[in-house]
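Hi D.,

Good news: the full-assembly prediction came through. Inputs first.
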Amino acid sequence: MSAILEVSDLRKAYAGVHALDGVSFAVEAGSITGLIGPNGSGKSTAIDCISGFQKLDGGKVVLAGQDITGRVAHHIARTGLMRTFQTVRIYERLSLRDNLAIANQQFDAANWLDELLRTRRYRDAVEAAEKRARQLVELIGLQRYWEIETGILSYGQKKLVALAAALMPHPKVVVLDEPVAGVNPSRIREIEAALGELNRAGETFLIVEHNVEFITNLCHRVIVLDQGRKLAEGTAAAIHTDPRVLEAYLGMTPEMAEAEMRGAA
Amino acid sequence: MTVDATYLVQLTLNGIALGLLYALIAVGLSLIFGVMEIINFAHGELLMLGAFAMAFVLPVTGLLYWPALAAAILAIMLVGWAVYEVLLVRLRTDEFERSILITLGLSIILIHLMQYFFTATPRLVDTQYGFNGVEIGSIRITWTRVIGAGAALAAFAGLYLVLRYTQFGRAMRAIAQNREAALMVGIRPRVVARNAVVLAAGLCGLAGAAIAPIQLVTPYMGQFLIFKAFALVIIGGLGNIPGAIAAAIGLGLIESWIGGFFEIAWQEGAVFVIMIVVLFLRPDGLFKKGGMRVG
Amino acid sequence: MKLLAAPLASMVAALLLAALPLVTSSNYVIGIGLSALIFTVAAAALNLIYGYTGLLSFAQLGFWGIGGYATALTVVTFGGNFWWGLLWAALVNAVLAIVVGYPTLRTNRHAFVIVTLTFALLVTLIARDWVSLTRGPLGIPNLPAPEAFGHRFAGTAQFYWVAWAFSVAMLGFLYALCSSRIGRTLVAIKQNEPLVRAQGIAPVPYKLAAFAISAAITGAAGGVYCFHLGIIDPLFLDFYYMQTFLIIVIIGGAGSFWGVVVAGVVMSALPELLRFSEDLRMVIYGAILVVAMFVMPSGVAGWLRERQLLRMREHVR
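Then the structure:
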């Protein structure tokens, strides 16, 4: 396997405080990579910088062989990196169908003239997008809300819509910012299963999340950040027993962590 | 072309007086924006009401300037208070467009009610000072202008002291800087917003009352000034009070100089050209945006 | 069926409106119909930039005036015809919208509102003070009736057809635009700009295009309207016009194409029935604006939609 996303030596400071202090990691194509760390460790800053929502002070981001460092957000998205947001972002006053269609429209062959004249190319593009959207809606189990404004959905359902939208254009990497924070436990299992299935179908994910169990179950590889630096990297199991991680992130000893896991399971 | 030094000084003094007047309006807008993040479109009409109040009270006081000025300011503060309690209190901070449309409606109502009752005929307002003035060498300025400028300066000094040293000024700055944090330490946004609106209305009333003896008073007089005040608020950086004052005085000077040497169209256009240039170079205004800064 | 209802109804309505000069010979009534058509076009253009894109533009008044002057000057001063005048009006306004819009849209929506407001005032002042071009407060009287295919559209009844054809064409274009993906993208930008960017769409070109199109259409509408009046002077830039466009959009429902079109026709005819003094009429306008912003901030269309949504919610749960 090869790295689809490679970041090296990311640096970002706010008013002298180093939010990112030389972070490097890679995401393998076809993998699920987890990015964890305590509050303020720089995870959110890292993905904001990677996706172009914040300017980097230094470092390099390479997506599928293309240097995307310092590009604007919409440019990075077109290169093949789609993301979701921590506070769920969807178009609340548009239908589920429109939400998914908009997510894909920058990635088909129809230009604005096609759109205005409703040419064949436009109709084909719309049809293809609709087919993809139907599949994704089935996967997230929201078929009955197809024509309905997404504003009425529950918080967990909205997160699923955001996830489906990010998947619409077959991106090279999907970055999920806390996909299960604030979602009720039964729903978390569903999301977990859906992500697993998508991954087996070839999707690549980079997930920022607090829920350790979720990360442990899903991720092939986990990167731990602390105070703007990479603290550890490895398989989920290896991370779980790394004393540095336990101390920094969980603030507990390995024994306590084990007890915690048993309790949660 | 030789430039007459006296003429230039005269233009400069006029420019400063004009700029101080602009500043009174712009500061009020900035104050309200800083606290509530809304724009009061009817701000110019508060000025117009202030001028009318001056025009109505002066005959009652036997043309005595100062009591009439005080009465006009008080009256407009009351109007400001009513506007806040009836309309603005219902707005949330993220409803910028809605605030504009509501206060636009209020502005239409005020202009046309005044016009309906008092007609559009311009009024000349006479005071105890008449057209008397001070003469320094060959330069002559009327007392009403001198007093107007002095009152504006005094108002700014007062505003500075209020914002800097009083409990209510500190609360206002706290909200402008960080709303959430201010709420957490127990500052009541409603009270602060009301105070800000009343204070801004008072400044506006002062401006209107001071301008009444200098210009003609009509129901439309606020509209022309308010557009400039809006531009100044942008040029100075939204919500930045010293920025608004600096921009206002700068504009007063520029307009006065341009008006002295070029066609009037250039004078009126100056503010818009400056605003576009400023936005091109510094999208956040000339002075740093964010928070309500005093000095 | 439901999908076709609105366009079908509008076609019928358009044909009925076309027949107005055949039904009545009163120039007064035809004049009201003509104003209704033109104001509806200007309001629909405002709806594109405010209702769809979420940018409150007061520059519409300036575009309206510039359009009027551009058309009048093309005919009277530069020796062109009326149709070229409309084209110039549209073109000049589109370019101006981009020049003003580009630096402003980089800032924030607050600055956009205020800059457009100041722009409108500037145009008023220029119309009054640039006497060598605009002839100042006296204005340009006796605008000639336009001609096409050897026919002269003289008189209100004749000119009504010109205004009708113009309005139907412009509303048709705006409908095509608003109901396309482009319109949907504008709505998306208004609702959640960061998400739009995360989906690979650059918001600024869309906003600029919406602003330029809105400006061009408003300008051409102004061009048609001043030839109906037969004179253009600084009063053509009275804030009254801006207020009318705004009230139409707000009562109809910002972001609802048909809501605004219906409101345009109704709201333009209604004041004529209220035979108050000019000032009291404006007071009522102001009151309507204030009350509407509190009672139904998203207009009649928004209110209906809200109720529909409520029913849907009950149905789904």
